[in-house]
Amino acid sequence: MAKKIYAALLRGVNVGGSRKLPMARLRALLEGLGHGDVRTHLQSGNAVFAADHGDEESLAAEIRDALEREFGFTVDVLVRDAAYLKAVADGCPFPAATLEGKQLHVTYFSAPVDAARFAAIDQAAHLPEEFRLGDRALYLYAPDGLGRSKLAEALARPALTKGLIATSRNWNTVTKLVEMTDA
């Protein structure tokens, strides 16, 4: 089987001084699992690798289990292939080319989400902030950045993401991962 390029998106590592996970050790862990061409981006749990076995779900479980053995804590992991990452970037409903990277975010979900899940959010009350749903992804336009976004707070409520793994990346990281996985 030919190797396929993937990105692993780890949730909640190296944030606020807890759940420390050095990227050099993450690279070594992925190589130890037999993956090749391993590279990381930033310190927030973004890794690109080539695998000749598995699919997104089995690879995510393999990495999650290895991280727990190595570091002693559980890390939610999403794995997405290069084609999916490119489709998410290409499918952006906002004018990404005219926005700053900190104004646009993508939340990746472990399963598809539908509008009913987010129906209780009054989008008009949050303007000019907006969100749109994609395939296993949510696009968020926050003109003042994520840290000041009231809509981001509303979208992060546990009831809205119940039963899902969800992890967000700003547009700079979204496009960098597409670039890194472009074979």
TrEMBL record:
It comes from the Bacteria. InterPro entries: DUF1697 (IPR012545). Pfam families: DUF1697. Gene3D superfamilies: SP0830-like domains. This is DUF1697 domain-containing protein. It comes from Streptomyces aurantiacus JA 4570.
